[in-house]
């Protein structure tokens, strides 16, 4: 499997080439397909996903309405702000993520609409599809290709990254950085990527005038409902303070969940071999070995995180809706054991969090 993108002028990209698909993924895919054939279930979300969508958007409308139009005390405002942050997280995990991957529905316009809720959160689904769907899901944990592990030197998430003296303390200051994650997207990185035409060293694809217009309209709409309309009813300093608090909660939650999937003890960070950039494993084995599950027995965690605690299943079958991950995880785990592929899974969120911060601590030391 060739996995090279054309570099832009003067941009040197790391060569990455996966070996051809082996027996492991062929057998696994056949077993998962057989599961859906035998049960008669569609691989998309169906009524279960639409039910979640209704609950999530009811929470969003209620919390936003309470915050902007009904809050008269600080306690009420803080409670509504917390609920709004949770609504944003639920939209991102449960609605946007499936829609952006095209797994929510068989109808493209439904997927497009659900994916576009990324703009409701202040970011850009157009950029997300390139950063997440194309780069992260292809080059998971590969330094120089997976932008998700590139923090510009603020954190050392991979053994392949250069270590600086401040990384010794990264396990302590990382939670503060995570709080700024969504603010960083909304106000800085989205604009930088769109106008410079690349994510890291990887050029953006199809950056057309219509894509640029959609990006600008999405940002304008977000600032209109998140800042301008509330400022008509409340002092601007209160609006800005609550805006920051909402983003701190949302940013820390989203950043931590994504970190628990790949930057934990036991997750691998494979490097390509010169001169052709051949990776040591085929794409499917690479996805399993660089990814971790957590709290797979908890229905509450699976509901809240939109199945993102089943990251191995998601990376192997991102075109299947998250509502099916608990069922197919049994097939995936059994097949991994049969083929001798390490299946990394933490029993709880707490244990996954501990592993992530131990990972940061270990990479921060000499």
How would you sum up this structure, described in words?
This protein has 366 residues and is mostly helical. It has one domain. Helix content is 60%, strand content 2%. It is built from 15 helices and 4 strands. It has helices at 23-39, 46-70, 74-101, 108-115, 117-120, 125-136, 170-179, 181-196, 209-231, 236-262, 283-289, 299-304, 311-316, 325-339, 349-364, and strands at residues 198-199, 202-203, 293-294, 345-346. Strands 1-2 form a two-stranded antiparallel sheet. A two-stranded parallel ribbon has the order 3-4. Strand 1 and strand 2 form a beta hairpin. Helix 3 packs antiparallel against helix 4 (108-115). The model is unreliable at 1-11 (pLDDT under 50).
Which descriptors apply to this entry?
single chain, 366 residues, mainly alpha, two-stranded antiparallel sheet, 15 helices, 4 strands, 2% strand, globular
Number of helices: 15
| Structural class category | mainly alpha
Mean pLDDT level: 93
Topology pattern, helix = H, strand = E: HHHHHHHHEEHHHEHHHEH
- Strand order of the biggest β-sheet: 1-2
Straight-line distance between termini? 36 Å
Strand content: under 5%
Can you count the beta strands? 4
Unreliable residue stretches = 1-11
Please describe the biggest sheet, giving its number of strands, its sense, and whether it closes into a barrel.
2 strands, antiparallel
Oligomeric grouping of the chains: single chain
Question: How many domains?
Answer: 1
**Coarse morphology:** globular
| Helix content range | 55-70%
Specify Rg, calculated over alpha carbons: 21 Å
Write the layout of secondary structure elements.
Blueprint: H1 23-39, H2 46-70, H3 74-101, H4 108-115, H5 117-120, H6 125-136, H7 170-179, H8 181-196, E1 198-199, E2 202-203, H9 209-231, H10 236-262, H11 283-289, E3 293-294, H12 299-304, H13 311-316, H14 325-339, E4 345-346, H15 349-364
Parallel strand pairs: 3-4
Antiparallel strand pairs: 1-2
